[in-house]
Amino acid sequence: MNTHDFVRLTAATIKTRIADPAANAREIIQMLQAAPDSDVLVFPELAVTAYTCGDLFGQSKLLTSAVESLRTIAEATRGKQQLVVVGAPLEVQNSLYNCAVAIHDGRLLGAVPKQFIPNYKEFYESRWFSSAHGAEPREIVLGDHTVPFGIDLVFQAGRVIVGVEVCEDLWMPIPPSSVHALAGANVL
């Protein structure tokens, strides 16, 4: 089989340190180096900060450090053809969103906010995060760059067009991936 006939996808996990985006960025970069042949690398929800930060999600220092770490991860992808998706909390107009951030060749391509925030059993994300509905700003500033922001984004790297949904979004009767597929995504 010709190497151009298939796409290599990697679902990667890292040793996550709670509320330490710099350490988590280093782990993510190590994983990028360990999977140089992967076309798409997907990291866990909130991988940059850890999922279990609790009320620390309300600390501006954590959120600022998360954005700085996204820029560090982006720089580590410069010159590479991989599409990388990492989870991070992002503050947008005084609301906090649980996002998947797409990165390619040194650039932050955009951020997809989680739409369906679980608030049952051990999950109480609505304490910290807002649900995205599609009325959010279409662009946000991450560091020095303005990037697309929205529930309907798809990302292209070569012949791969990726639609991203975050955790609970997948289990809905009509998941975001339905819309992404209709928009041309060939990887969900």
Structure explained in plain terms:
By secondary structure, the chain is α/β, with parallel strands linked by helices. It has three helices and nine strands; from the N terminus they run E-H-E-H-E-E-E-E-E-E-E-H. The strands form three sheets. It has a five-stranded mixed sheet. Strands 6-7 form a two-stranded antiparallel ribbon. The chain has a two-stranded antiparallel sheet with strand order 8-9. Strand 2, helix 2 and strand 3 form a beta-alpha-beta unit. It starts with 8 loop residues before the first strand and ends in a 6-residue tail after the last helix.
Supply database-style keywords.
alpha/beta; 188 residues; globular; two-stranded antiparallel sheet; 3 helices
The SSE order reads EHEHEEEEEEEH
Computed structural class: alpha/beta
Mean pLDDT over the full residue set: 92
How many strand units? 9
- Computed Rg: 16 Å
- Sheet of most strands: 5 strands, mixed
What is the compact description of this entry?
With 188 residues, the chain is α/β, with parallel strands linked by helices. Helix content is 20%, strand content 26%.
Describe the SSE topology.
Layout: E1 9-11, H1 21-34, E2 40-42, H2 60-76, E3 83-92, E4 95-104, E5 107-113, E6 139-142, E7 145-148, E8 154-157, E9 160-163, H3 176-182
Parallel strand pairs: 1-2, 2-3
Antiparallel strand pairs: 3-4, 4-5, 6-7, 8-9
Helix pairs in contact: 1-2
